[in-house]
């Protein structure tokens, strides 16, 4: 059996550790306790939006004339383009 406990360091005490170990009391296998402080960086939306705006500013918008109202024809014409420069 394996269990992961995420606990506020202020709440760790002998009673809590004893209670966690009761989950493994029926097993004769040794129990390993690993404690680590892990700070996960949070996703920065402001930075992401700023980077997206920089990409938009650098990217040239090229209009592609559709010339058709049939979506299937448009997809076929895009698929027919040879992207190999050789």
Write the layout of secondary structure elements.
Layout: H1 14-21, H2 45-58, H3 71-79
Short description:
The chain is an all-alpha fold.
Number of helices: 3
- Terminal Cα separation, in Å? 59 Å
Tell me the overall shape: elongated
Question: Averaging pLDDT over every residue, what do you get?
Answer: 80
Instruction: Quickly give the structural class.
Output: mainly alpha
Beta-strand residue percentage: under 5%
Can you walk me through this structure?
The longest helix has 14 residues, at 45-58. The chain has three helices and no strands. 0% of the residues are buried. The mean pLDDT is 80. The chain has a domain at 45-79. It is mainly α.
Task: List the defining traits of the structure above.
86 residues; mainly alpha; elongated
């Amino acid at each position: 059996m394996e269990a992961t406990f995420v606990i506020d360091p202020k709440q760790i005490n002998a009673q809590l550790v004893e209670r966690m170990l009761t989950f493994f009391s029926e097993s004769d296998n040794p129990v390993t306790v690993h404690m680590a402080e892990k700070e996960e960086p949070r996703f920065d939306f402001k930075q992401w939006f700023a980077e997206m705006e920089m990409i938009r500013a650098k990217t040239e918008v090229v209009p592609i004339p559709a010339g058709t109202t049939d979506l299937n024809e448009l997809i076929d014409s895009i698929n027919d383009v040879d992207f190999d420069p050789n």
